[in-house]
Amino acid sequence: MEVSEYEKLLLYLAENKYEEAATESEKRRIWKRSKIFQIDKNKSLMYINNQEGQATVRTVITRERRKSVIKLMHTGHLGRDKTYEKCNSRFYWKGMKQDVAEFIKHCPECQSQNKKTKSHVQEMVPVSFPPRVWGKVGIDLIGPFMKADKKKPICKRGYRFGVMEEIVSDQGGEFNRSRWRI
To answer: Where in the numbering of this chain does the Integrase zinc-binding domain appear (predicted)?
Structure first.
């Protein structure tokens, strides 16, 4: 809610007056909007939310005070949704959800704890099926293992099915070593 609209609503509710320069359409809009607002004993504008027969009254916050209210409600760094719920349970202003999201997006402590900024997941790359057996082989190196009695099991597979055309790996650190370079 704009500060000027806030002041216009306060003037109308407190003194049943409109601003001198108000047009007929502005007067009609203020009159309609005034039905969901009231003034408390401290001359603060209150928003009345009447849902399901339960009326809840929340303090209307001016543009100047919004950031400090969000900061106060966000002291536990509970995240966007819980901070919004805390603000929304006690206060009202248009665009609250976006303001809370924007504030948390720029909160250094929240961003350093955010899981999205900590880990980067590599995108999956679709793998096509080879035209024949042993045409494409996926490998992942592990080990070291104890020496086996049988020698050269991969060579035996090569003799049986032919030479591998393509090797696919997860690009692990094992392939960065100089012994694998051609």
So the answer is: 62-115
